[in-house]
Amino acid sequence: MISNAREREVRIVVVDRDPSVAGRIRAVLEQELPRHLESGEASARVEIFVAPTPCQGCRAVSEWAPALFFVDTLSRCATGQDLLRRVREGNQDVGIVLTDPDLDPDTALDAAWRGASAVLSRPFTDGQLLRAARKALDFHDGRRAERDTRYAFALTLGHELKSPLDAVEMILNNLVSGFLGTLSEPQIDGLQRALARIQTMRSLITDYLDWSRLGAERRRRNPRVFPAAEVVHKVMDQAAEVARDAGVVLLSDVSPSIRLRADPWEIEVLLGNLVSNAIKYNRPNGRVFIRVQEDDHAVSFEVEDTGIGIDPAALGRLFKPFSRLRDPRAEGVSGSGLGLAIAREIVLLYDGEILVESTPDVGSCFTARLRRCRGVDLPGAAIPCPFDGP
Ligand code: ADP
User: Which residues have CB under 8 Å from 52's CB, separation 6+?
Assistant: First the structure.
């Protein structure tokens, strides 16, 4: 990360079951890496967090947004495997250096395929360690630049598309309300259909912007402690008009005592997408029930609907970007195919999972389970653990 024009800060997370290896990685990188990174007038500062466990290491990667992650246990850590998968799918910029002592060629190949930027077989020299760090850092820098450019482009595009939509919508609304003269029923009907198309386009643009922002702003997350009811009520308010138009009733059950530490924007987008689907794929006089539950390990947001349901054979296609099921019962329902993929990305940020149960013609229930985690003491303590409790 470039904190100002003259100093570059490089954050690194290290996980190693052997404390002496972790200590050596820290010492070499702290002492030598800044010298390798300095260019012209710009200096470099390296900040290292040695995580006590692989899971805390992965958590630190998600929360602290380091440039590099040195890890020795990916093949045995489910969270680590997940992290590699996310790198491959293009949603993490961290450069991963795998330092597994039991590394065989198959695991090394597999790790490279899944997104590791460098693989160090042990024992390694200081020079090899530095080369691996620089290689992984190149990967990180390239990804970061690409993502920021993409996001800047998405923002401009979003703005350029939304402004004319707002203007056209205002004109159409004036026509429909009769301010510019009396219109016939068929004319009003046509204009109302045009207004509905504008809403569809606006939600496509919003999904696209959320998707881009999720990737670009990972390091500018803003976690705070807040009641789950706050976000539930906000999402219900936002969805109220669409639900009314669709003839769907929104209900909720959330105890005011349930609090979570999270980025409110992320939780709002997650829940908003599930609720929006529960309304879109419902039936007239249907219901949407939002429940929030907690236990020691997680906070769960559950969204149940009485809608068209999902064919069991199609469940495996959910949560992939741009994957829309071709269900004749949803003919005419518009969408970007990004809502569930966005929801899943957000859940992964909380080391959680998203589950779905569905019965065709009866309804679906999506549960987003966000894991609590107690205290990863990150350097600078700038970014706390998302579920550190109230
Ligand atoms: P979309 O913008 O198409 O709604 P999503 O990613 O939100 O995209 O959902 C992907 C697909 O999953 C939808 O197109 C729809 O076929 C199916 N789906 C999502 N939620 C539900 C639901 N509550 N009931 C039935 N089908 C659903």
Answer: none
360 SS3 class: coil
Cα gap 203→165, rounded to integer Å: 12
Give buried/exposed letters for 268-287 (b at 16+ CB in 10 A, else e).
bbbbbbbbbbbbbbbbeebb
Higher pLDDT, 332 or 186: 186
CA nearest to 116, candidates 135, 98, 143, 90: 98
Residues contacting residue 367 through CB under 8 Å, at least 6 positions apart: 300, 301, 302, 303, 354, 355, 356, 357
Report the nearest-CA residue for atom 2 of ligand 1: 335
Between 239 and 61, residue with greater pLDDT:
239
Task: Give the dihedral of Cα atoms 205, 236, 243, 289; nearest 10 deg.
Answer: 120
324 CA from centroid of ligand 1 (Å): 6
Residue 338 tokens read as 């990004």
Alpha carbon of 93 to ligand 1 centroid (Å): 28
Alpha-carbon distance values, 243 to 17, 92, 361 (Å): 52, 35, 19
Give the residue, out of 324, 326, 367, with the most ligand 1 atoms within 8 A of its beta carbon, to mutate for a pocket test: 324
Going by C-alpha positions, the residue among 65, 52, 86, 90 that lies closest to residue 348 is 86
What pLDDT score was predicted for residue 375?
A: 39
Cα(273) to centroid(ligand 1), Å = 9
**What CA–CA distances, in Å, run from 12 to 58, 147, 226, 281, 354?**
12, 20, 30, 44, 29
Q: How far is the CA of 293 from the centre of ligand 1 (A)?
A: 23
What pTM does this model have? 0.71
Stretch among 22-36, 112-126, 363-377 having the lowest mean pLDDT: 363-377
**What's the confidence (pLDDT) of residue 87?**
53
Q: From 148, 14, 30, select the one nearest 69 (Cα to Cα).
A: 14
Whole-angstrom Cα distance, residue 273 to residue 286?
18
- Who lines ligand 1 at CB under 6 A? 273, 277-278, 281, 305, 307-308, 310, 318, 323-325, 327, 330, 335-341, 364
pLDDT digits (tens, 9 = 90+) for 139-183: 888 888 887 788 888 888 888 888 899 999 999 999 999 888 899
